[in-house]
């Protein structure tokens, strides 16, 4: 499902198709990143055929004239067509990935139509330029072939800073001021999400930001008097849910995650971070969870990013982020270790539940989060086999199910599903082999009878394994001098030894994990690794 370069620009969609694509955008993207004006886009969609015809007239004129700077009126037309076609492309890609009915044009055709306007769009650096860059980022989130998503979001943040969006400003127009705040915090959210997944620095530090969060009002208000009244109402009734409540609450979570990142994922060692700092961050997450807003009454399709399930999914991602650097301290901090494992399991279970209860497609960030949650479970078992119980096996199966669903809808993700399945299979095989007594020790084993502690064996789980004893991976620290292969990694290190995971098969599975890692941006601090997909950074 890549972007074939031969795809022709799309024609404007029919009324039925355009309405469907806009509905997908409002419910699946705008609900989380509300940086566009709903009323403006609805108006552009109504005039799409008129805009397209005007564009053809300009093309004819340009063929018979010498190159000249883009005029303001001409750029406005290019911007309008760019935004419309990018929204169509983003939504068509979403429809394509969830395997529902096909749109009239492919996402690549809409994307190519938008690309024709890019020179005029980027000829001036203003708020519309930042809008356009964010639309490109949203498209690339679900596109296997792309021009560098991290570079795009970094460019958007640089433009935001140059425009002063990160600072409080005295803007006479309330509508314009709210637009600026919504735009900045959407750039901020995407910057944090991409940077954390890549293990790269944030584009702007928290200490350089002092602009307020957007007002908790409905997103379709563009009248000054109505907006002023809505803002006053939001101050008087702070718990009232609006169409922006969920997005604002997600921004608050990104701010907490950013603090976690700066505290635990900086150059200082995570074991030097005082326990009270971690406790404060954990309490902030608990407070965030307690204040998850109720969803306003609306169409069920618009509930995806406003549902409690989706909020909890992001909450457990943050808990995992908080305790992952402490996972190797399981002996001295068993509670923190268990919180990390539980959070990873919840991520897998919630991803599975969301698939069953809502119509969703998948993104690179979603694949990254699910795959890393599964690897956290496997690594947690390596550190402490006592975590294996029915819940643990259920979490492993949930991760496998989600990766299978993603791969079915997105063939490029199949190798990560296969790698995870290989790891689980070889883990079981290695455990069974190590639990079988050798011929020289059979008599001693029989004599020992039932003296072994019940805690040293796994419970029965026919879907995942039989009842082997938990494996001993101590030999993985010292691979054989010849033929031994060890994945050198500061996070998922000894568990990857090929001789402990089925020889060549185990080696291939972990080599596929190695393919995910962007080696230029690994954390070198022992115990920290974000599992960085190289497909995020082809030019690094």
Automatic annotation (TrEMBL):
Source species, domain of life: Eukaryota
Subcellular location: Nucleus
Residue ranges of the region described as Disordered: 431-461
Transmembrane segments annotated in the record for this chain: 360-382
Keyword terms of this UniProt record: DNA-binding, Membrane, Metal-binding, Nucleus, Transcription, Transcription regulation, Transmembrane, Transmembrane helix, Zinc
Domain named Xylanolytic transcriptional activator regulatory: residues: 149-220
GO BP annotations listed: DNA-templated transcription; positive regulation of transcription by RNA polymerase II
Compositional bias (Polar residues): 442-458
Biased segments, Low complexity type: 432-441
UniProt GO MF annotations: DNA-binding transcription factor activity, RNA polymerase II-specific; sequence-specific DNA binding; zinc ion binding
Claim: DNA repair is one of the keywords in the record: no
Transmembrane keyword on record: yes
Pfam families for the chain: Fungal_trans
InterPro entries: XnlR_reg_dom (IPR007219), Yeast_MetPath_Reg (IPR052202)
One Gene Ontology cellular component annotation held by this UniProt entry: nucleus
Main location: nucleus
Listed name of the protein: Xylanolytic transcriptional activator regulatory domain-containing protein
Organism this protein belongs to: Coleophoma crateriformis
């Amino acid at each position: 499902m890549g972007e074939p370069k031969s795809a022709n620009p799309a024609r404007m969609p029919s009324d039925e198709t355009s309405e469907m694509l806009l509905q997908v955008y409002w419910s699946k993207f705008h609900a989380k990143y509300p940086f566009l004006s709903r009323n403006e886009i609805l108006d552009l969609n109504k005039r799409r055929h008129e805009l397209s015809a005007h564009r053809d007239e300009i093309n004819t004129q340009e063929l018979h004239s010498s190159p000249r700077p883009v005029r303001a009126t001409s750029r406005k037309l290019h911007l309008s067509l760019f935004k419309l076609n990018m929204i169509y492309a983003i939504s068509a890609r979403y429809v394509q990935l969830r395997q529902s009915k096909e749109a009239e044009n492919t996402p690549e055709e809409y994307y190519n139509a938008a690309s024709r306007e890019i020179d005029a769009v980027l000829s001036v650096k203003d708020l519309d330029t930042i809008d356009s860059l964010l639309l490109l980022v949203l498209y690339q989130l679900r596109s296997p072939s792309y021009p560098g998503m991290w570079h795009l979001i970094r460019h958007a943040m640089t433009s935001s800073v140059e425009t002063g969006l990160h600072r409080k400003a005295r803007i006479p127009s309330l509508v314009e001021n709210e637009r600026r705040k919504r735009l900045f915090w959407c750039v901020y959210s995407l910057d944090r999400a991409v940077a954390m997944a890549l293990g790269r620095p944030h584009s702007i530090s928290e200490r350089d930001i002092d602009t307020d969060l957007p007002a908790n009002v409905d997103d379709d208000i563009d009248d000054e008097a109505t907006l002023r009244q809505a803002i006053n109402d939001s101050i008087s009734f702070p718990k009232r849910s609006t169409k922006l409540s969920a997005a604002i609450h997600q921004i608050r979570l990104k701010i907490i995650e950013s603090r976690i990142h700066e505290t635990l994922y900086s150059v200082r060692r995570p074991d030097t971070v005082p326990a009270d700092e971690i406790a404060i961050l954990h309490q902030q997450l608990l407070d965030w969870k307690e204040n998850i807003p109720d969803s306003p009454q609306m169409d069920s399709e618009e509930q995806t990013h406003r549902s409690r399930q989706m909020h909890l999914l992001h909450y457990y991602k943050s808990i995992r982020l908080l305790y992952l650097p402490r996972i190797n301290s399981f002996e001295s901090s068993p509670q923190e270790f268990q919180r990390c494992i539980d959070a990873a399991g919840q991520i897998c279970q919630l991803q599975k539940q969301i698939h069953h209860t809502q119509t969703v497609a998948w993104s690179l960030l979603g694949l990254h989060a699910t795959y890393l949650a599964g690897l956290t479970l496997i690594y947690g078992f390596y550190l402490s086999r006592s975590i294996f119980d029915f819940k643990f096996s259920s979490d492993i199966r949930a991760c496998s199910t989600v990766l299978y669903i993603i791969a079915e809808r997105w063939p490029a993700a199949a190798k990560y599903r296969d790698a995870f399945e290989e790891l689980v299979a070889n883990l079981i095989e290695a455990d069974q082999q190590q639990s079988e007594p050798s011929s020289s020790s059979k008599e001693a084993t029989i004599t020992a009878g039932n003296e072994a502690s019940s805690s040293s064996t796994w419970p029965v789980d026919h879907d995942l394994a039989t009842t082997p004893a938990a494996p001993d991976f101590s030999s993985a620290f010292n691979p054989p001098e010849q033929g031994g292969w060890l994945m050198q990694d500061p996070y998922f290190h000894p568990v990857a030894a090929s001789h402990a995971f089925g020889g060549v098969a185990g080696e291939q599975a972990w080599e596929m994990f190695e393919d995910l890692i962007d080696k230029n941006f690994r954390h070198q601090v022992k115990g920290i690794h974000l599992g960085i997909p190289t497909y995020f950074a082809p030019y690094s």
